[in-house]
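Lab channel / #folding
Pinned by the channel admin:
"Please post every new chain as: sequence first, then the structure tokens as a reply. Keep commentary short and put observations after the output so the thread stays searchable."

First post following the new format, from NK:
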Amino acid sequence: VLTRASRAGPRHSLRVVSASSTLVPPRAASPAPPPAPPPVAPQVRVGRVWIHAVTMAQAIAAIAALIGRGRGGAVFTPNVDHVVLADEHAAFGAAYGRADLVLGDGAFVVWVSRLLGLPLPEKVSGSDLVAPLAACAAERGWRVFLLGAAPGVAAEAGRRLHAATGVHIVGACSPSIGADGSGDAELVAEVRAARPDLVLVALGTPKQEVWIDAVRAALAPAVLVGVGATFDFIAGRQRRAPAFVSAMGLEWLFRLAHEPRRLWRRYLVRDPAFVGIAWRTWRAPRATRVRGG
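Reply from TO:
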């Protein structure tokens, strides 16, 4: 159950909030001072991925600053699999290089950062970020669009987020996007027409990061955040690992046990390469793996 504290199939689109909706209308935003520029946070490099050393609260403040800046932006949350893919996938690695905010997702990424000379203060996963970010959006009157997951899942996630936080959901769709992250002009036009301040994208990796990088300019001033399987968790379609399992760094094992046919290759074949990537990064001079710290 979602509280205040807390893959792409055939094209399917559903508006969650409209003029005739029975949902509670969004709360009016109170006058705010001119936005400050996005804060500059120290970064640590793991492989090809530079990660900002911020807490959850700082991450939300940084996203708010990006929205206030009014020029759009991209926010990614790398885990072990992302680090490995960035080492192998040129377009994916390049998308990470252009991201405005990169948040460490996963216990292994946080643990390795300590060895690399700039400890990440905490894990900031997309799944943990969405609920407090939605609450912030409700307080500030942001317009939020949900994009991705299987047909109907984004819409259900939007209804639950609205019920929990009062956030103004202006649209939800489950588009068909190519494996290379390619989309179409119609989809971009649909999202632009909703005039969102924030777009939560749940297409799976590497598709969602490549797609965000490709359309971010067209969707500005909206800020786009990659959130992976978060809509499935919120909508109750998938069960998330208990907090203590995640804290032990075993969320991957929990997910593998529940979806072995889909995830065995990722976790058992591809992701062990993370060890070698972390080793190579550690052997590099500190000045090449830490910025501003």
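NK: The longest strand covers residues 168-174.
TO: also worth noting, The chain has 13 helices and ten strands.
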